[in-house]
């Protein structure tokens, strides 16, 4: 199964670039930019990666992201992730970034977006990995700050495919950003939102009804509301689920109790993703493998997650077809009878 997953052509749809900041790169950038980290070694930093909930993780994630300061830093971060994609047979990825973490502490929006987009373009030219860029608003900041950020994103309309919503979910419902998302949609951006990670199923309804999103990020709490599950199945509204993240942040106490396979069997368009792999101990292949092993899935069942991710991507129908052909070619070889 490990070899099958490793070679399987895959698409990732829920990945925070700042969440790919490996401890080694964090220390390198801290030294490059004269940032003093509150950890004396890589080991002591890694030892702090014990998160009892989302907020405990976010506190460390935001602190780590402060070592990213120059255009080259954002380039290096993004390109390192794309090289990892190449190793993992990820053929297309739609990545999040959180510009407000950086603009709040004085790094210009252009520095952040410039470095990320330059790396994504090089990743396509040199590594053959296609991508989409999704700019997230921090939901614990104000509507006005989100509008200000959206105005800056409009200047990069050709480079940013969608806007999203992340950070502390509880107490920051989707409705707070209804007007910002309407502006984003009217400008032509696709929309996604984290909902139903720690927050209740009502947050997922909020993302659907107030934000009119094209995908829900996480969304696992939908199981608390059978009508919501019916809605997701009927409309084939995708969920970008992050199994290892959910276990690390205690959304589920054990991978064996995760609801992703239940949702798949009910007909929800679920996908597997890594969220913040440098912090949660696993990139995409490890997330696939954890689910496959916990639920004793067949190779055909595992391949459904890859097929779903192609369907749920923001690629054109023509490009989706090309990726689907690549997937089918791989499966043909895997399942060809040996004569
Ligand atoms: N899992 C997550 N939930 C909400 N915001 C995030 N930002 C980075 N990772 C996140
Ligand atoms: Zn996330």
UniProtKB/TrEMBL annotation:
Q: Which cofactor does it need?
A: Zn(2+)
According to UniProt, the reaction catalysed is: adenine + H2O + H(+) = hypoxanthine + NH4(+)
> Any idea which residues are catalytic in this one?
197
- Known EC number: 3.5.4.2
Q: Name one GO molecular function term.
A: zinc ion binding
Record's keyword annotation contains Cytoplasm: no
Q: Which GO terms describe its cellular component?
A: cytosol
- Name the positions where Zn(2+) binds: 14, 16, 194, 275
Task: Please give a single GO biological process term from the UniProt record.
Answer: hypoxanthine salvage
Q: Sorted alphabetically, which keywords does the UniProt record give?
A: Hydrolase, Metal-binding, Nucleotide metabolism, Zinc
| Ranges for domain Adenosine deaminase | 9-328
What Pfam families does the entry give? A_deaminase
Bound how, and how many: what does the cofactor note say?
Answer: Binds 1 zinc ion per subunit.
Per the record, where is site Important for catalytic activity? 218
Which annotated residues bind substrate?
Answer: 276
Q: Which family does it belong to?
A: Belongs to the metallo-dependent hydrolases superfamily. Adenosine and AMP deaminases family. Adenine deaminase type 2 subfamily.
**What exactly does this protein do?**
Catalyzes the hydrolytic deamination of adenine to hypoxanthine. Plays an important role in the purine salvage pathway and in nitrogen catabolism.
State what protein this is by name. Adenine deaminase
Taxonomy of origin reads:
Bacteria, Pseudomonadati, Pseudomonadota, Gammaproteobacteria, Vibrionales
């Amino acid at each position: 199964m490990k070899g099958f997953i490793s070679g399987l052509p895959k698409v990732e749809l829920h990945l925070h670039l700042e969440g790919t900041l490996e401890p080694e790169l964090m220390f390198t950038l801290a030294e490059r930019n004269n940032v003093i980290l509150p950890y004396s070694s890589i080991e002591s930093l890694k030892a702090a990666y014990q998160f009892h909930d989302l907020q405990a993780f976010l506190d460390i994630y935001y602190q780590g992201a402060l070592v990213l300061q120059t255009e080259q830093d954002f380039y290096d971060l993004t390109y390192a992730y794309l090289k990892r994609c190449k190793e993992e047979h990820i053929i297309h990825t739609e990545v999040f970034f959180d510009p407000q973490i950086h603009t709040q502490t004085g790094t210009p929006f252009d520095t952040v977006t410039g470095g990320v987009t330059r790396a994504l373009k090089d990743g396509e030219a040199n590594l053959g990995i296609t991508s989409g860029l999704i700019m997230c608003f921090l939901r614990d900041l104000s509507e006005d700050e989100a509008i200000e950020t959206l105005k800056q994103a409009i200047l990069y309309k050709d480079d940013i495919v969608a806007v999203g919503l992340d950070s502390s979910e509880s107490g920051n419902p989707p409705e707070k950003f209804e007007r910002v998302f309407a502006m984003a949609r009217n400008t032509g951006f696709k929309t996604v939102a984290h909902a139903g990670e720690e927050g209740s199923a009502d947050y997922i309804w909020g993302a659907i009804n107030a934000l009119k999103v094209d995908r829900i990020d996480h969304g696992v709490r939908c199981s608390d509301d059978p009508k919501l599950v019916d809605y997701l199945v009927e409309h084939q509204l995708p969920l970008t689920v992050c199994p290892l993240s959910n276990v690390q942040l205690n959304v589920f106490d054990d991978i064996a109790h995760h609801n992703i396979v239940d949702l798949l069997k009910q007909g929800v368009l679920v996908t597997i993703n890594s969220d913040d792999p440098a912090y949660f101990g696993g990139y995409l292949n490890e997330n696939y493998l954890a689910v496959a092993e916990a639920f004793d899935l067949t190779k055909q069942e595992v391949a459904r997650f890859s097929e779903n991710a192609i369907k749920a991507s923001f690629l054109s129908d023509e490009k989706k077809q090309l990726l689907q052909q690549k997937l089918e070619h791989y499966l043909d070889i895997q399942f060809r009878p040996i004569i």
